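Figure 3 (text version): structure tokens given as input.
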């Protein structure tokens, strides 16, 4: 819980509302890489959300097959 509490506020909000369980370390790694490339907080959060959407699509394909609506990448 401490690791979660140390996250930047946008990442904490993302994790609270995410469809999949994410570890604080996973989202922080994506965030830090984006910020190191010069992305703004908003762009870094968008990158985290794209990664989450891709993961959700991959998991949906694995569980329900490629024709499931959630299996389509945004």
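Below: residues designed for each position.
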């Amino acid at each position: 819980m401490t690791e979660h509490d140390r996250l930047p506020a946008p990442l904490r909000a993302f994790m609270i509302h995410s469809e999949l369980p994410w570890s604080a370390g996973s989202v922080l790694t994506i965030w830090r890489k984006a910020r190191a490339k010069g992305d703004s907080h908003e762009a870094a959060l968008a990158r985290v959300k794209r990664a989450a959407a891709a993961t959700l699509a991959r998991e949906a394909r694995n569980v329900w097959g490629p024709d499931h609506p959630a299996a389509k990448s945004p």
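Residues 2-71 form one domain.
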